Amino acid sequence: MKRTLTLGGIAVGLLASAAVAAPAHADSVPHDTLASTNFAAKQVAAFWYGQNKANLVNATPYAVETTLPTKHVSSGGASADSKAGVVGSSGDKSASSGTSKNVNLPKTTGKVFFIGADKKPHWCSATAVQSQYKNLVATAGHCVYDTKSNKATLDKWVFVPGYYQGKTPWGIYVGKTAYTHYDFDVYEDGDRDYAFVTVYNGVLPTSGSSKSYAHTYETSLQAKWAKAKLDKDKAYSHVTIQSVVDTRHVVKEGTRDSRKVYVKRDDWKKLNPEGTPADGPFKEGTGVTDKEYRFKPRGWDEGKASRDGKAFYLKKGDKYVVRTYWINYDVDYRLTGRALSIGLKDVGTLGSNVGGQGLAYNQKIGTGMFVFGYPSGSHPDGNHAFSGKTLKWSYGKTFKAAAPSMKAEELVGIKSSFTGEGAIGSSWLYRYSSTKRLGYLNGVTIAVSDTDGNKRIDTSVSPYFDGETLAVYKTAAKNWSGKIV
C-alpha cells in the first residue's frame, strides 16, 4: 500500500456543507495477501493457539488514535450514488426492524486478532458477512492495513467469532486475502476505511507442543540474517538475539564484535603470570586502567587488593593509584526462538458455522441501526464503562458526519456510548432480526467522539456504504479460500 496520510493527530472540523469528494476508483479493487499458503496459515493458527492461547488472552484493544476531539462530529456530505439495495444474508431478505429490549446477539460477530506495529497482539471487532464461499469477514480498514508503520497489512491476522476469554467456540479463521477501496489503499481516505477479508476454513486444536531453537553465531550480521529467515518462516515465535561474551576467546583490543570486560586481578594474572608492571608488556587483548588521585581515597591500602578483587592499590610518585584489570573477549550472538507445533482439525467454513450478515448500500440517512461490538477502554472522564470481554449492542438513527482532517467528508454517525478501544470494526446492522440474528451490514465503526464536551463518548462514525462499497464487497465475495488442514 502507498501511504500518504495517517489517521494520527485527528482534529476533526465540523462542516455545515461537505466538500465534493474526488472520484473514486471502484473499477480497480486493491487486494493484499495475508497468509498465502496452507503452511503459513497453519503457523498463524499455531501462534494463537500455542502456549495455552496466551497471545489471544493477552491481546489488547487496537488503539490507533480513533477517538475524535470534542465537538468535532457534525453534518457532512454522505449521499447515495445510486438506488438503495441489499445483498441477502444467510437467512432471507425479510429481516424485521425495531428496538426490542430483548436483543439476541448475532453469532456472526467476533474479534479479529493481529500483531500491531508495536509487535504486540491486538484486536478489533468484526463480523462475518454472506458470500459465495461463506468465507468473508468485514471490519474497519485500519484493523487490517497497517496505517501505523506503513507496512502493507497487519501480521498474523485471524477472525474468532464469539470469542470470550480465550474460548474459540467456532474455531479460528486465518485471513487469506484482504480487499479494500482504491482510495483507502493509496490515500488512506477515511471515507473508505473498511475492508473485506476472505478467510480459510476454521480450525480447532487437537494437540499441541513446542520446540526450542538456539544457535550461536560469530557475528551480529549472521544472527540478523538467520532471524529474518525464521521470522519469514512464521514457524517460530519470540525470536530474539542476545550478545554473549565468549570468555574462552581473547581477542585484540578494537576487534569488531568484541567487548572489554573488567575482571578480578587473579583472573587477569592467569593470562599475565609475570606480574603487573605498570607499562607491560601484557598479553594481547589484556591491559590495565590506572585512575590517579592526589589525595588518598577511602579504603585505599597500598599493595592490597579491593574486597571484590577487581582493583589493586599502589603509588606512582606522590599519586595514589587504583588499578583495574581488563580482558578483551570475543562477542558471539545467540539466536533463540520457539517452534510451535499444534495439531489442528478442520471445522468447516465460517458461514456454515455462524451464518453471514447481508450487505445494505445507499440507504437513507436517518435509518435505524443496531451496532454490535466489543467496546473497551475508558471515557475521557476516566470511567471504564466497558471491559471488551463481552459483546455489546446499541441502537440509533444515522446522521451525516464529516472529519476532514482524516480525509473523511462523507461519513455517517450514530449516537452510541461505545468507547473507541475495542469498538473499532463494530458492525452496523440494518433491519436486524433478533429472532434470526441476521440483518444487513451497513457500516463499520472507524472512530468515536464526545460531541457535547461532557467527557463521555456519545457518537460512533462509519464510512457511508454506497455502490463503491458494494463493488469492493462483490470482488471479495467471489473469491475462494479453502482449507488449511
- Computed over alpha carbons, the radius of gyration is 30 Å
> Strand portion, in percent?
35-45%
Strand line-up of the largest beta sheet:
5-6-7-10-9-8
Regions with little confidence, pLDDT below 50 for 5+ residues: 1-27, 93-100
Mean pLDDT: 86
Q: In this structure, how is the largest beta sheet organized?
A: 6 strands, antiparallel, barrel
Task: Assign an overall shape.
Answer: elongated
What's the helical proportion of residues? Answer: 10-25%
- Ends: how far apart? 30 Å
- Return the structural class: mainly beta
Total strands: the figure is 27
Number of helices: 7
Topology:
Layout: E1 31-33, H1 38-58, E2 60-61, E3 67-68, E4 85-87, E5 109-115, E6 121-129, E7 136-140, E8 155-161, E9 173-179, H2 182-187, E10 194-199, E11 202-217, H3 220-233, E12 236-250, E13 258-263, H4 265-271, E14 286-293, E15 311-316, E16 319-348, H5 350-354, E17 358-361, E18 368-373, E19 376-377, E20 386-387, E21 392-397, E22 399-403, E23 408-415, H6 420-423, E24 427-433, E25 438-444, E26 447-449, E27 459-463, H7 467-477
Parallel strand pairs: 2-6, 3-26, 17-25
Antiparallel strand pairs: 1-9, 4-17, 5-6, 5-8, 6-7, 7-10, 8-9, 9-10, 11-16, 12-16, 13-16, 14-16, 15-16, 18-21, 18-24, 19-20, 22-23, 23-27, 24-25, 26-27
